[in-house]
Automatic annotation (TrEMBL):
Keyword list, A-Z: Coiled coil, DNA-binding
Superkingdom of the source species: Bacteria
Coiled-coil features, chain-numbered ranges: 125-152
Name of the protein: HTH merR-type domain-containing protein
Length: 184
């Protein structure tokens, strides 16, 4: 019996579920599995048949309680009987699953649209950052130019005031002595 036991990774790959899911099912439905499955996580063919039935019932949307009932109702000696377990209202379940699938597709499409929108926002954000940096550099250059112009204007003003003072002194010196005396 030990020679034909499979490890959790093999069973996980065979059933297309994660090893974590297998461990959770072993904890929940351990009463329907062999002691080796519960203790060493090595599975016999019978254990794999039970786990396959659990996987199928979960895909059908059954709750853990409903799966437990189905496993109790099945013949424990025949794993094949577990595989034949069906829901009484298959058409209703198919409609529910179809609705869930449509909702899932809608959510995926919404998520894709949100990703596209986020990509546009990120691109716009980078473009705005570049534009902001360019404007900041331009503003700094304009402030430096304004500072140079103010300094140039101040120097020109001082130069004009000196020339005006010089001209006033020359004008005063060129007046006849009697006008200077009278203050005219």
């Amino acid at each position: 019996m030990r020679g034909c036991m499979k490890r959790i990774g093999e069973v996980s790959a065979e059933l297309d579920v994660s090893p974590h899911t297998i461990r959770r099912w072993v904890e929940t439905f351990g009463a329907f599995l062999s002691p080796h499955a519960r203790q060493t996580h090595r599975y016999t063919d019978e254990d794999i048949a039970v786990l396959r039935t659990i996987a199928r019932l979960r895909r059908e949307g059954r709750s853990f309680d409903a799966i437990t009932e189905a496993l109790r109702d099945a013949e424990p000696s025949s794993p094949a009987s577990l595989a034949r377990t069906t829901t009484p209202d298959d058409e209703a379940w198919q409609q529910v699953l179809a609705h869930v699938q449509e909702t899932h597709h809608t959510l995926l499409n919404t998520q894709l649209a949100n990703r596209d929108l986020l990509a546009v926002i990120v691109q716009d954000n980078f473009a705005l950052k570049e534009e902001n940096a360019r404007l900041r550099r331009r503003m700094q250059a304009l402030e430096e130019e304004l500072s140079r112009l103010k300094e140039s204007d101040w120097n020109h003003r001082l130069s004009l005031e000196e020339r005006l003072a010089l001209l006033e002194r020359q004008l005063e010196a060129s007046k006849p002595w009697w006008k200077r005396l009278l203050g005219r």
